[in-house]
Design brief:
One of its GO terms (molecular function) is electron transfer activity. This protein is mainly α and 347 residues long. The protein contains eleven helices and two strands; from the N terminus they run H-H-H-H-H-H-H-H-H-E-E-H-H. It folds into two domains: 150 residues, Cytochrome Bc1 Complex, Chain D, domain 2; 132 residues, Cytochrome c-like domain (Cytochrome Bc1 Complex, Chain D, domain 2, Orthogonal Bundle). The chain is 30% helix and 1% strand. The two termini are 18 Å apart.
Length: 347
Amino acid sequence: MAWKIGTAAAVTLVIAGVAGSALPGPAAQRAEWREGYRTPAAIPFPEDNPYSSAKAELGRRLFFDPVLSVDRDRSCATCHVPDLAWADGRPRAQSKQGGDLDLHTPSLLNVAWQDGPLGWDGKFRTLEAVPFGPIIAPGNMGLSEAEAVRRLAAEPDYRAAFAAAFPDPTVTRPRIEAALATFQRLIVSTPAPFDRWIAGNEGAIPEAAKRGFDLFNGRANCAACHSGWSFSDGSFHDIGVGRDGDIGRGRLKPNSLALRYAFKTPTLRDVAQRGSYMHDGSLTSLEAVIDLYDRGGIDRPSRSREIRPLTLSAGEKADLLAFLRTLTAGPSTAPAVAELTETPPTP
């Protein structure tokens, strides 16, 4: 079966003049940095949950179907909206009761490359472990595991879909999780102007953005955490934000001072479409994010050693902003999901 919201086209990666060249000073450093942002050759799938188109299609149906909420009024797509860069455009996720949940909805873009634990505080060991967190949460979808399994097993169409996706067709929580995770690994960012520049098109981004790229990887040190093609190191850092008592990963790792107030590094893909920002949605613009990093955030013992006051000039802040905007494909671009094929798809 071939189904897609939008195909994330592969980017041809040839950086003109890099291989075997003897570029001087800053030009050589920029060329080296550019090499670190190559589009990966394939979407990674774990050995214990390999890709299949039937499993991905089942996961797609489950993702958009409100059958997994107690009142059949919410789905995964309620908070992870394709047209909002797979987030929800709110400072904090909306609760089932109409109020705010505790945290900002993270984007699912490129979640397949998010190594290590998931969730702002890392409470989910793998992507497969995530779905039933919101499904059973009273403030979110509010459905019990037993009822979720019963509902799906009672529908002939779902029974047939599970039979196509798994050798054993019995509906179980692990199979629901495996199907949803398989679909979510196909949520891949659409190539942005930045990617065209990495591929060798020097006119794809303005000169200000190129200077911002140099700052991002150099003096501003943003790439220490927002690294590589997915713009995330998959780790947890206290960046000096948040005063509401939420200590993030420190709840799970109470003996680690470095993880107190530490939250997972989000991707920066399509970042211009995803405000508000931070784990608590406390910053409403990219300008405010840059200002936070410029002043170094809250100075406390757990603050990451990578975070320090930068004393950026107004021009440097403008250059960084110009660069960040090149990571967004554009508002007219279809939401990105790799095409369902019989063999594992590519980005």
